[in-house]
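User: Sequence in, structure out. Go.
Assistant: Echoing your sequence, followed by the structure tokens.
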Amino acid sequence: MPPWKHRRRLIYATCCLAAGMIVFAAVTWRSDSSVSTQLIVGGVSLLSIVITAYTGFATFEDTRLWGRQETEQDEHVE
């Protein structure tokens, strides 16, 4: 399995977990608002961190791969 498939599965699972935390907190808001507040803060933080890291590292990997391809093409042309 390519490493990007494994990373993508982890990202989807983490996003589902964060969304589940937010939905569960919204449903149980009336019974215990302090726990629900912490679940919402944690879920939003987890979602933000994961999406930012995924897009940031994907961009880094793309620039690194494209940089290698351009260098290899330049070497073959000369």
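User: And one key feature?
Assistant: The radius of gyration is 20 Å.
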